[in-house]
Design goal:
2 copies of one chain form a homodimer. Chain A is of the alpha/beta class and about 280 residues long. Chain A contains 11 helices and 10 strands. Chain A has 2 domains: about 170 residues, Rossmann fold, CATH 3.40.50.620; about 90 residues, Pantoate-beta-alanine ligase, C-terminal domain (Pantoate--beta-alanine Ligase, Chain: A,domain 2), CATH 3.30.1300. In chain A, helix 7 packs across helix 8. Chains A, B: Pfam families: Pantoate_ligase. Chains A, B: One of its GO terms (molecular function) is pantoate-beta-alanine ligase activity.
């Protein structure tokens, strides 16, 4: 497995692979890998000749009061896991390597898609995401890039970014991996104490409840939101950031639930903010 | 000569050329070509195997009160000129092809480099330039891209954009082409009536005057600006938008003229706004 912390030698490596006609698959991560990340890697292994994983906790996508400093990191463990999966190359740059002195260029996806949900709760977050993803795509020049559906809003924004800026990459989305009890895998789950860990299943159960309501015929998004909110409030450790029911992939509000849509949640369990979603479809 | 108005077939053409190992040279233009553009093309012919010229009057880089609608266009003449130069491929998309329905992603270079000079006079202009250039680079995927020094601020911004976003292209700058009497070639020169055309040489003469002052030992940027402004005011048809003396390439204000620097002018001749500059260097 090749390991790079600098952009230039990585670019040389990628150029060599491309000259040999290899299909490059790319999995961008913030490290502290769990089975969700590894499912992206496995999908990439199936579809690409060369799999490159980046590990970079991007300061640009964290707000001033967010958890950048305490975000969990364990490069050694990550490298061992990726080696085991047969990954070809890991790119783990420093913030200084990614944002050289004088850096001041940003990519911004405008419109409702970035303004609602996590865009509302985390101002500047998606500007940071769009900028780093554009940079990583230009550095790695992948044919395919793999993103998890757990970060559905991010996924839709990146798909739009690729379309709008004519980036030469195909985005592949991969279903959310869950623990036995339904909790979506996330590096932030490590913040939870045992009591909070139990309470955290409220997100999955709330989504299940929402799905059942839709299956039972509920088509009013406001009523659905309200019912899901009430369900979540039964958990004393949970504090709702948002519950949203919106169209997919443009995340518009709907008068009536129809076609492809998302039920998306952000909920604090203690001081840990967790997100989860179901993407559903009705006639 | 190949001619494309759509992105997809152009991308296919470029991919074919790349598979054959060809070096792609790219000259982005807004059309209505003059000898300045053709000098970019000739430079590209020398350095690249395949030369692609784009012709696109980018609505995004024109302000609401600017000359987008009346900007001169003559595709037939442009194609004849490019054919004569031995250009391999012309890309002339419509605005609808470049900005598909729902387009809302922008690239912005922040900081003094985009805030001063034309960035101050034309709010949003460089955001439009950075966005379209990023798109064109992603569409054409050139190895080399050629820009004229007449638009020096644009050139420095694009060089910064390429660095900051890790774009895989080398920027080549080409000296300003001038008419016999020194007027910098520009498609906007066609707006000038004969009297204005004569008056328009004031820009070049003012730059020459500035250069002479520096050669004579002037190192105070404020005093240099003042003297150039006074020189321009001797022309009754001229109205100064800005006269700036700044460092190159970051366009910072200087206490003392030192190293590489630019004398940059924007001057209205009648209702036509013209720009020009000298890039100079002193110990």
């Amino acid at each position: 497995m090749r390991f790079f912390t600098e952009i230039k030698p990585l670019k040389t490596y990628v150029a060599e692979q491309k000259r040999e006609g290899k299909i490059i698959g790319f999995v961008p991560t913030m490290g502290y890998l769990h089975d969700g990340h590894l499912s992206l890697v496995r999908k990439a292994k199936l579809q690409a000749d060369v799999v490159i994983v980046s590990i970079f906790v991007n300061p640009l996508q964290f707000g001033p009061n967010e958890d950048f400093a305490k975000y969990p990191r364990d490069l050694e463990r990550d490298l061992a896991l990726l080696q085991e999966e047969g990954v070809d190359c890991v790119f783990a740059p420093s913030a200084e390597e990614m944002y050289k002195e004088g850096f001041s260029t940003f990519v911004e996806v405008n419109g409702e898609i970035t303004e609602v949900m996590c865009g509302k709760s985390r101002p500047g977050h998606f500007k940071g995401v769009a900028t780093v993803v554009t940079k990583l795509f230009n550095i790695v020049t992948p044919d395919l890039a793999f993103f998890g559906q757990k970060d559905a809003q991010q996924l839709f924004i990146i798909e739009k970014l690729v379309r709008d800026l004519n980036l030469n990459v195909e985005i592949v989305s991969v279903p959310t991996r869950r623990e036995e009890d339904g909790l979506a895998m996330s590096s932030r789950n490590t913040y939870l104490n045992p009591e909070e860990r139990k309470a955290a299943t409220i997100l999955y159960r709330a989504l299940k409840c929402g799905e059942e309501l839709v299956l039972a015929g509920e088509r009013n998004p406001e009523r659905l939101k309200k019912l899901i909110e009430e369900f979540i409030k039964t958990e004393p450790l949970a504090r709702i950031d948002y519950v949203e029911v919106r169209s997919v992939p443009d995340l518009k509000a709907m008068d009536v639930i129809k076609g492809k849509f998302i039920i998306a949640l952000a909920v604090y369990i203690g001081s840990t903010r967790l997100i989860d979603n179901f993407i559903l479809e009705v006639d």
